[in-house]
Amino acid sequence: MAVPARTCGASRPGPARTARPWPGCGPHPGPGTRRPTSGPPRPLWLLLPLLPLLAAPGASAYSFPQQHTMQHWARRLEQEVDGVMRIFGGVQQLREIYKDNRNLFEVQENEPQKLVEKVAGDIESLLDRKVQALKRLADAAENFQKAHRWQDNIKEEDIVYYDAKADAELDDPESEDVERGSKASTLRLDFIEDPNFKNKVNYSYAAVQIPTDIYKGSTVILNELNWTEALENVFMENRRQDPTLLWQVFGSATGVTRYYPATPWRAPKKIDLYDVRRRPWYIQGASSPKDMVIIVDVSGSVSGLTLKLMKTSVCEMLDTLSDDDYVNVASFNEKAQPVSCFTHLVQANVRNKKVFKEAVQGMVAKGTTGYKAGFEYAFDQLQNSNITRANCNKMIMMFTDGGEDRVQDVFEKYNWPNRTVRVFTFSVGQHNYDVTPLQWMACANKGYYFEIPSIGAIRINTQEYLDVLGRPMVLAGKEAKQVQWTNVYEDALGLGLVVTGTLPVFNLTQDGPGEKKNQLILGVMGIDVALNDIKRLTPNYTLGANGYVFAIDLNGYVLLHPNLKPQTTNFREPVTLDFLDAELEDENKEEIRRSMIDGNKGHKQIRTLVKSLDERYIDEVTRNYTWVPIRSTNYSLGLVLPPYSTFYLQANLSDQILQVKYFEFLLPSSFESEGHVFIAPREYCKDLNASDNNTEFLKNFIELMEKVTPDSKQCNNFLLHNLILDTGITQQLVERVWRDQDLNTYSLLAVFAATDGGITRVFPNKAAEDWTENPEPFNASFYRRSLDNHGYVFKPPHQDALLRPLELENDTVGILVSTAVELSLGRRTLRPAVVGVKLDLEAWAEKFKVLASNRTHQDQPQKCGPNSHCEMDCEVNNEDLLCVLIDDGGFLVLSNQNHQWDQVGRFFSEVDANLMLALYNNSFYTRKESYDYQAACAPQPPGNLGAAPRGVFVPTVADFLNLAWWTSAAAWSLFQQLLYGLIYHSWFQADPAEAEGSPETRESSCVMKQTQYYFGSVNASYNAIIDCGNCSRCWQWGGTRGQGRNLLFHAQRLTNTNLLFVVAEKPLCSQCEAGRLLQKETHSDGPEQCELVQRPRYRRGPHICFDYNATEDTSDCGRGASFPPSLGVLVSLQLLLLLGLPPRPQPQVLVHASRRL
Question: Measuring CA to CA, which of 209, 325, 497, 544 is 20 to 30 A from 297?
Answer without folding.
Answer: 325
